[in-house]
Give the backbone structure.
Amino acid sequence: MTAIATLGSHCSLQVLKGAKDEGLKTILVCEKKREKLYKRFPFIDELIIVDSFKEVLDQKCQSILEKNNAVLIPHGTLIAQLSSEEIESIKTPVFGNKWILRWESDRNMKEKLMREANLPMPKAVTKPKDIEKLVIVKRQGAAGGKGYFMAANEEDYNTKRNQLISDGIISKDETLYIQEYAAGVLAYLQFFYSPLKEELEFFGVDQRHESDIEGLGRIPADQQLKTNKIPSFNVIGNSPLVLRESLLNEVYTMGENFVNAAKRVVSPGMNGPFCIEGVYDENAKFTSFEFSARIVAGSNIYMDGSPYYSLLFNETMSMGKRIAREVKTATETNQLDKITT
Ligand code: ATP
């Protein structure tokens, strides 16, 4: 029998609940400090207790996973805590394509893949002196929006950067990435591509609630002007969104373009869940600032099934369960190598 394993954070609960519902064994790599939390959930069959998630690379952990024929489901925490080299060195089969995770973590590679997929992107600004319009300044990797800031010109950029350095939030020699700010309705488009069926499924849309940029919007402008705190984009939670039906066709096209581009640049392509993240402007034109090449935590809002999956499946289907279904089908038909790397 195959088991499903993941790190205890991010979306591990829905991943393991979905696996249990599919009749698979569930294993959680769990930090000691969270043991009590995860023991509350009866669908977790086995906990591998670690001091730090890096121990997933250790022989001890990998041999438990191997003994259980486990497939490891990567999520945001794996990317945040391990380097690309470390992720690529994992011996346990990783669901989807572990090689594409590097393309998510490295800003230049990310931009290249998005261009290859023809996704409409905000303009990148190479030097602070070239800032002409409102920009957002980001850190490398999946920083989760912490330490990001907006700037209207070079002077504004320098003031804020210096403040964040002196507050200890970013470091002096960190390379920052500057991009024009795209205003509109946030939409994080979640997909699943099945290499077994060679089919793209649109799962759902979420919005992120980010502190404290969102909190700032709740206070009157005169009070905003008096605060000199630099608002961050730290994600606190997610909420659901449905799109105007007339936008769906373009959503599928973007998803398909992304899958096709990934096939060309990073074999075996974009298998499993992924997310295209951006905003819709006043003309319903989408601009994408980011993608995630694995399950996103925004799928947690649809643990009981999403609006779009209820159109495709006559049963409750979460993203966690969809992943487990793919693993189960691949196991039964001897095609695990098609869905893991
Ligand atoms: P994660 O890996 O958690 O997705 P990240 O660190 O890679 O995050 P982004 O998703 O690129 O960061 O950005 C974080 C947030 O900043 C976004 O959710 C969005 O609210 C805002 N943001 C990023 N880029 C832009 C942009 N060009 N225009 C407007 N808002 C943006």
Residues 248-265 form the longest helix (18 residues). Residues 122, 136, 138, 142-145, 148, 179, 181-182, 186, 208, 210, 233, 235, 277, 279, 289-290, 292 surround adenosine-5'-triphosphate (CB under 6 Å). The chain has three domains: 3-95, 105-120+184-339, 124-180. DSSP finds 14 helices and 13 strands in the chain.
